[in-house]
Design brief:
The complex is a heterodimer of chains A (177) and B (801). By secondary structure, chain A is mostly helical. Chain A has ten helices and two strands; from the N terminus they run ααααααβααβαα. Chain A has a two-stranded antiparallel sheet with strand order 1-2. The chains are: A mainly alpha (177), B mainly alpha (801). Chain B: It catalyses: Na(+)(in) + H(+)(out) = Na(+)(out) + H(+)(in).
Chain lengths: 177, 801
Amino acid sequence: MQETGFTPAHIVRLYDRFEALDKEKTGLLRPQDFGAINGLAMNPIGDRIIGAFFSPGQETVDFHSFVRILAHFRPEDKKRPKDPSMPEPVNSRTSKIKFAFQLYDQDKDGKISRAELLQVLRSMLEMQVTEEQLESIADRTIQEADLDKDDAISFEEFRKSLEKVNIDHKMSIRFLR
Amino acid sequence: MACRTCLWLLGTAFFTCTVRLVVEGTEVGAPQGSHPEPGVVGSNHSQAGGGHGSSISGIQIVTFKWHHVEAPYLIALWILVAGVSKMVVELNHSLTSVIPESALLILIGWILGGIIYGAGKMQTFTLTPTVFFFYLLPQVILDAGYFMPNKLFFSNMGAILVYAVIGTCWNAATVGLGLWGCWLGGAMGDIDIGLLQFLLFGSLIAAVDPVAVIAVFEEVHVNEVLFIMVFGESLLNDGVTVVLFNVFDAFVSLGGAEIDAVEIIKGIISFFVVAFGGSLVGIIFALLISLLTRCTKNIQIIEPGFIFILGYLSYLTAEMLSLSAILSIVFCGICCQKYINANMDECSVTTVRYVMKVFANGSETIIFVFLGISAIDPAIWVWNTGFILLTLLFIFVFRFIGVFLLTWILNKYRLVPLEFIDQVVMSYGGLRGAVAYGLVAMLDENKFKEKNLMVSTTLIVVYFTVMLQGITMKPLVTWLKVKRAAVTELTLAEKIQNRTFDHMLVAIEDISGQIGHNYMRDKWHNFEERWLCWLLMKPSARKSRDYIFNIFHQLNLKDAMSYVKEGERRGSLAFVRNETKADVDFNKKFRASFSEIMPDIMADNMGPDHVPLSSILQDIVPSVCLDMHEQDLEMRESEDFNAHHLLQQHLYRGRKQHRHRYSRSHLETNKDENEVQEIFQRTMRSRLESFKSAKMGVAPAKKIQTKHQKKDKPQKMPNGNSTDKSKNHPYGDKDLEFSEGDCGSGGEAAGDLFPMRAYGVEAGIVNPAFMAEMDPMDNMQQMQQIPHVALLPQTLNSFDP
């Protein structure tokens, strides 16, 4: 598990968790196993997160992929030498932003369209917000972030809009260090 | 307006004091105790000693029978004064956010003490050990135990114990020895004291005080792990303190010569006996309470009374057996929370919670006020610069050293290391308080010639820690957390994204199971489910506990089922399109079952995923939203403003770090309950809808072959799922029909993985859907499967919501 950067102790712990989630002991996780985690039902984007674990076309998640996805949330290794020949580690800033991007971009066309943004907004805003309000928010958001005026947010634009945000802080879970 | 009220209140406070003093002043040469005046006719002048009526000149219409009511009157008056002081303190909120309440209360105590002193009545009102230990402390500790976040507490138990036991011993030893060394070196001048007395003093001054810690940490928001460490330590170190105090007290009595290895070993053994014995007493009383509340179905009005009485009894019993009383009452509170919350009527639970807070708050206020008053007593003041300053220095420095040392050791074994900032806060937050004062006041003057010196020093230490450290704690914490986001206006995208990140983190935390599973925990959970719940909880409570989550899905599925049946009956798609009929009225149904579980809200459940909804909701409810510091925007353009404003108002707040904030003065009523409900309903609704979409695909495909040709590929159900459940339900044939074969998608893009997955899950759904008619009580196992099954991921390409 070198590429994820987890320590053996962590891997063991994650494996225990994987096994606990895998109620039927098939060695693979299915959406309903995730669904059983009750906290996720309370999360506005819980279902999207569940979806992120499954690669397109896959119905199950094996341990390797499970760990890989979780590795995105490891805090960054500050001391990592910047070696351009090595592939980008999973928990680098870029990879984290990419993960976040993919949550929005469900159809994987590399852009967050207005419709996709609307969906996310809808799920994160209270019920009392009306459609027009939603649309105006979405419009303004795209206006702010969209630099090439194609009415969608590409990955680069997305990344640019987050350049002031401390991604490492916002997208890391300490105990996965 | 506030000024006037303030002055008015201060005036009242002074007035009550003067009244009392005047009243006191009228007892000229009266005996100290209050003797009830004999008979109806009394006289103003106290000739109470005789107990016979004095000669009267005529019938007195109204008499002033002060001594008749003296004792209770004074007590009530003092409680009133304490309450009024608290009101005065709370008047100005900006003041209390800078200076913690406890410090202000001590200040008021000084003022009051000054008044009393000025009126010539010193020493009448001090914080005596008896009053403190028997009447003021138990409620505070019971409150701490009852509201303790169990999961957090027990998962950090190892670290807490290390700090409590080893840390306190370290503090005691170093302070004692340090002072002894300095005394030998002559820094303190000539005082009549010895090594053992120093060690005793060290042991009583070493303990971190729970009352003071809570009072200060209420204002300072720290993360929950840090909080539970300090809090837990302050509660559990009583075991050590009691033992050390008694041991050294006995040693001092014995004299230095008698101490040999046997005595020391006895001391060590007594530690274990005291600590575990105390906890055991507490646990026994917790069992008693739970059993009692189990049987009080018919007389619910007296339930709260039991809690308090038995809690108090556990304290006294432990005290009687010379075990650790604080440990006893803490464990009593910790262990009984869950069961009594489940067993008791909702009103009783609210009563208990609220009254406990009232008592704890009241006690704490009285304690601090009296700590202030007790200072204004010249008789006790002995000033020895060396002793006092060195004590202050040593407790401060050695606390830091101790914490850092222990943390360094602990971090080798912890998966989540404690950071530098945490350690600093933990060291700085080691406040001493009234317990130390109570202990020192209990010392025997004959054995301890320098008792007054010790009392003075203890008071100064308490004031120093509570006031100085209390006041500077918050700025220190803020200063340490230097890295703050630049105070610029965030763009919409950033705001949305920030919130998304928060939700994401929370979700990932849940998925990765921050609290790891381990063998012991699971074993305990199983044991508890099987035996303890059976023994200690009312049968009805047991049932509702387990099935709350499932009730919801039962409702879900009942509706889904009825919907399908309708579809089958009508046999047309036109019906299927009309969603409104089959729509579940979440609000009504959810609220109904939700209100039943209200008592459960605070019930905490140790264990992994199959936790009942109640405790989930308790977990979920975010208590503090951190990012409320968003800047108010200037109006750039009205549109823009609206968008930001909308976001600020209506974005769902995620769960934050502080969900387990323990607060002395605030009951955690679920402020964001509505939000949680709403999110939950929406998630369920969307899952239900995708389920319906599955049904919509399946039902027509099966029954109405003609009408609908779904294009998508048939999905193979994971066999494990279907065969499992098909075994035990009556509608075998129908089940099989549905479980294999075509599942249409909503006609959406095949590339979208969600519908596919939805149908993968569907097979499982069908069976329980039909089984929903069976008595849910019968198959717990099956019903527990329901959460998996009905929780379909949201179909993003939503078809006509």
